[in-house]
Amino acid sequence: MKQVHLAAHFPGVNNTTVWADPRSRSQIDFASFQHLARTAERAKFDFFFLAEGLRLRELKGRVHDLDVVGRPEALTVLAALSAITDRLGLAATVNTTFNEPYELARRLATLDHLSQGRAAWNVVTTSDAFTGENFRRGGFLDRSERYMRAEEFVRLSRALWDSWRADAVLADQESGRFLRSDAVSAVRHQGRHFTVEGRFNVPRSPQGQPVIIQAGDSEEGREFAAATADVIFTRHGTLEAGRAFYTDVKRRLAKYGRQPHQLKIMPAATFALGDTDAEAAEHAAEIRRLQVGPQTAIAFLEQIWGRDMSAYDPEGPLPDVEPEGAQDVSQGRVQVADRLGVAARWREVAKEKDLTIRELAIEMTGRQSFVGSPETVARQIEEFVATDAADGFILVPHLTPGGLDDFAAKVVPLLQERGVYRADYGGPTLRDHLGLDADPRDARLGGAA
Question: Which part of the chain is the Luciferase-like domain (predicted)?
């Protein structure tokens, strides 16, 4: 019976978090990270996932309200969490456009050592010049070039991790033994973006290589994931879309010498629970109203229309104005590639359902959620996984830090009873949790430069 994989996404700074709820707590205080991580580990989740933000977003030249608390650096937080968890995987989002392979490989290998084999790296890229202004190079890479840099970045990092022999002997204080000179090989790499020559100074970590996660639904992103990733983080939430994505990405693996089990597909998902399905539906609707208030609704509209829309009533109809090409209304967010096409779809839905601006924003920006009683949600999750629409889900709760509590207490036991979810961890490492090969070099995942 196919098993369900689950991970927990720390909500972070975004419009999915319901700040108005009195149970909402700090995004900075370590106690918030600790609470969510311990809940996830108690529920036997595969890993705890942190996003990244390299610059505060702006809306019409001012810091966006949802970003005022900032976002801590992920690897530092995860290193602290490694000390208060025992089995939970620890996944950091780190950008390949604004980092260097040798330095990042050291940090990730160190986390894998500290956690005894639980580190993961969510590989992301950006060509956003606004973000790039915080870095010497700036945002100079176009889409194809940034994936080329990312591929070389990961390939070089793997070469560094694999440069230590698996049977290398560490220094022994009692015997006075030290590493033999042949325990670590020199890495010589000269590529389009990086030139490295030397020996990596962190011994081979418990997993050999941290788990690689990739988020991206574009053609370049799918191909990059098929060649490189252990887990792909997607937004395909419906059964139909999920199955199409699942089939497309899994079929790409063969040309890289990989098997289907070597890449787990885990969409982001939200959830709303209630004692009954009707109660859960009411709860979900209220959550969405709180997530998309009047100001947020206008901000969504401005991102798509590319112009100031603050003069319009969010509780009124969609205005009869055309999108503009301006890119400076909202900065630090993913830009809308096809403004006219997206705006046309919004207009069509607004007309068909007679929606106000705010109702339309709620309708068009909500992720697919599992909504229902615990029994209904458990059944929905099992169906997605059993029918190859996903291998599991990265859950994004709407509250920090207690948003996962009910799911862990009410849904997880039902999944365990159905025989589709583990009762306990089967091994110490994240690779064990995900059912991945213990040593990626044995699975032809590309360890050499």
Answer: 25-387
Q: Is 296 annotated as ligand-binding?
A: no
Supply the DSSP string of 321-367, one letter for each residue: --------SEESSPPPS-HHHHHHHHHHHHHHHT--HHHHHHHHHPP
**pLDDT tens per residue across span 219-275:** 888 998 999 999 999 887 789 999 999 999 999 999 999 999 999 999 999 999 999
Domain limits at 361? 279-365
- The domain tally of the chain equals 2
Last residue of a domain, one of 312, 342, 365: 365
Q: Which two tokens stand for residue 248?
A: 């497309």
Whole-angstrom distance between the N-terminal and C-terminal Cα of the chain?
Answer: 38
> Which two structure tokens, joined as six digits, stand for 182?
């042949």
Question: Do the beta carbons of residue 94 and residue 368 sit within 8 Å?
Answer: no
**Burial tier of 55 (Cβ tally within 10 Å: 0-12, 13-18, 19+):** middle
Under 8 Å between Cβ of 168 and 209: no
Are 300 and 435 in a shared domain?
no
Cα 320 to Cα 305, 342, 357: the distances in Å are: 11, 15, 12
User: What is the rounded CA–CA span in Å between residue 83 and residue 218?
Assistant: 37
210 C-beta neighbours (distance < 10 Å), count: 31
Asked whether residue 97 is marked as a ligand-binding residue, the answer is: no
Question: Do residues 272 and 16 touch, judged by C-beta distance below 8 A?
Answer: no
Low-confidence ranges of the chain (pLDDT < 50): 442-449
Q: Which of 365, 397, 420 marks a domain boundary?
A: 365
Question: Residue 363's closest CA among 376, 375, 354?
Answer: 354
**Whole-structure pTM over 0.85, yes or no?**
yes
218 among the known binding-site residues?
yes
Token readout for 417 is: 């009873």
